Amino acid sequence: MFAGAISLAASDDTLAPFTDATVEELKLKHPSRAANTQLFSAANATTQSTQPNSLMLSESAILAAVRSFQPGSAGGLDASATSALERINTRTGDVGRRLLSRLTDFVNICLGGRVPDAVKPVFCGVSLCALNKKGGIRPIAVECTWRRLVAKVWVAKRITT
After folding, report:
1. What share of the chain is helix, strand, coil (3-state, %, to 5)?
2. What is the reported pLDDT for 105?
3. 57, 65, 83, 160: most buried, per Cβ within 10 A?
4. Tens digit of pLDDT for each residue in 127-152?
5. pTM of the predicted model, to two decimals?
6. In whole angstroms, what is the distance from residue 71 CA to residue 83 CA?
7. Rg of the chain's alpha carbons, rounded to an integer?
């Protein structure tokens, strides 16, 4: 569970100072995306949501994705640790089954391109930390747990179809 923290503590890597120089070095490695690109376009969301069941996934697919998270994975901007997801299973009775059902509904809403505009900045954002490593500054990004789950099930579906 604490393997990443122990690994960092045992290494020569340190947190980079929060300075303009650090920010500029990170920008050189990862420039901003073009202003005309969109993560979610209205046309794409409409097209996806009208395709019958093209991206609808089952509870078993969601549960498999939940179980595939590494123990102790960190949460992102939403501060949701994957440890909360690890507790989802059908052996917890009716509560666990209802939670899995609602989570499946949520994932299918996201896969259908229907993420509300107000949620997109957090859902698609990351929490960044800059580390001083042997090769220079390296950004470490931790994504939103819920988006990571959606991405896992989407990739798994694409691999199997």
Report:
1. 50, 10, 35
2. 94
3. 65
4. 778 888 888 888 888 788 888 889 98
5. 0.65
6. 7
7. 19
